[in-house]
């Protein structure tokens, strides 16, 4: 267990003691924000994905309850939004994919659960953005003509995770036409983040743009491919995600198995060289894709 993870646990028990001991609303709000400040830092040094999975429900419930007390805390909102989105993608939706061929009913139940997690993440993200930036949601739905200068670069992460959570929600709830119709909102959120900082999170945003462009019925496959290439460039060979995304979308669509295997093996090498939770999740996905390459290319 990493030192930063242990420190979070210790800090949590101290914070809860203070929260329960203080009765004044103003004091509690101050403590909530201090707790949030210490909890939202990413635990980049933790490498055990399954330890993170087991600890995640505890962390997610804690940060969500704090966010309810301080709904306009954007850093806390980002932590909650990213936490629920990553948990849904890594531990629930991925498991559903693996079970698709052998246990369809179980896979459907998992997709439903992932959908609820994504919805939770999106609603928290949008609420925080609406509270902070007047009329944000209404403007986004009306035209999408949001001024990038109105959003500080420090809040790009919240835009990214809110867009990603909506994209995940739509992908796991395709039988909800009203929700599918909200895909342009996900596009606008991602594009707004792109206008502010296209290199965000070592290519993660560029990769999301590529996935959205690929999924867009009116999108451009060449442009999507360009986004994936930008993502790989921004990754500086330290983020495995863009390599996996390009393999899944571009290489499979082109029936280029050599490209597919090369990209996924690169992703695995990066994950081993730069171990963190995100890269470990991508390493496992890359390995699963390689093991199922025959089925992917035959279909």
Question: Could you characterize what this model shows?
Answer:
This protein has 299 residues and is mainly alpha-helical. It has a domain at 1-69. 78% of the residues lie in helices and 0% in strands. The chain is built from 15 helices and no strands. It has helices at 3-21, 25-39, 49-69, 74-99, 104-132, 136-142, 156-172, 177-180, 183-196, 200-215, 221-235, 241-253, 257-273, 277-291, 293-298. Helix 7 (156-172) packs parallel to helix 10. It is globular, with a radius of gyration of 19 Å. Residues 1-6 and 22-27 have low confidence and may be disordered.
Helical content (DSSP H or I, runs of 4+): over 70%
N- to C-terminal distance:
42 Å
What percentage of the residues does DSSP assign to strands (E)? under 5%
Q: Mind telling me the C-alpha Rg?
A: 19 Å
Furnish the topology, listing elements before pairings:
Blueprint: H1 3-21, H2 25-39, H3 49-69, H4 74-99, H5 104-132, H6 136-142, H7 156-172, H8 177-180, H9 183-196, H10 200-215, H11 221-235, H12 241-253, H13 257-273, H14 277-291, H15 293-298
Defining key terms:
globular, 299 residues, mainly alpha, 15 helices, 0% strand, 78% helix
Structure, briefly:
The protein is mostly helical.
């Amino acid at each position: 267990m990493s030192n930063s993870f242990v420190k979070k646990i210790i800090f949590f028990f101290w914070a809860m003691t203070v929260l329960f001991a203080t009765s004044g609303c103003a004091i509690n709000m101050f403590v909530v924000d201090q707790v949030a400040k210490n909890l939202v830092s990413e635990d980049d040094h933790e490498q055990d994905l399954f330890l993170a999975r087991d600890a995640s429900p505890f962390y997610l419930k804690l940060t969500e309850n704090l966010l309810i007390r301080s709904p306009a805390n954007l850093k806390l909102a980002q932590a909650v939004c990213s936490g629920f989105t990553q948990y849904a993608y890594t531990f629930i939706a991925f498991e559903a994919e693996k079970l698709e061929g052998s246990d369809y009913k179980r896979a459907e139940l998992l997709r439903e659960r992932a959908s609820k997690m994504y919805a939770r993440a999106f609603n928290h993200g949008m609420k925080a953005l609406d509270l902070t930036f007047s009329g944000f949601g209404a403007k986004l739905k009306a035209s999408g003509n949001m001024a990038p200068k109105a959003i500080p670069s420090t809040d790009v992460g919240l835009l990214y995770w809110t867009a990603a959570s909506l994209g995940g929600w739509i992908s796991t709830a395709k039988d909800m036409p009203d929700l599918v119709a909200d895909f342009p909102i996900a596009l606008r959120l991602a594009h707004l983040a792109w206008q502010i900082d296209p290199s965000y999170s070592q290519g993660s945003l560029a990769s999301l743009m590529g996935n959205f462009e690929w999924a867009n019925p009116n999108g451009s496959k060449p442009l999507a491919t360009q986004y994936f290439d930008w993502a790989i460039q921004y990754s500086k060979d330290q983020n495995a995600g863009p390599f996996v995304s390009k393999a899944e979308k571009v290489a499979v669509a082109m029936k280029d198995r050599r490209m597919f295997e090369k990209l996924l093996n690169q992703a695995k090498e990066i994950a081993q060289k730069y171990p963190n939770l995100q890269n470990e999740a991508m390493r496992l996905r890359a390995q699963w894709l390689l093991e199922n390459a025959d089925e992917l290319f035959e279909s």
